[in-house]
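Example is below:
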Amino acid sequence: MITDEERKKLKKVFGHKHIVKIREYFIEKKIHNREEEPYSQTFISRIFNGRDRHDVVENGILEAAIDYKQKIDAKKNAKQKFLADV
């Protein structure tokens, strides 16, 4: 189960519309329910906010956070490199 402290840190990583970003990652990586349908935003939100427990979704949220942070850091580094070369 995602704790309050973990949720706050995850929100800092994702920023606004965090559930949408997580769901987009799930669709991209084909993380879906047993009927092979994408998890709903409502279901992801319930897991994210610690109301329910679901190991697959919790692990997916963590993977999404790692992936999103790496992309943001890569963009930041590319921007700094570009501005340094100008």
Notes: The chain has a mean pLDDT of 95. The CA atoms of residues 10 and 65 lie 7 Å apart. Residues 4-85 form one domain.
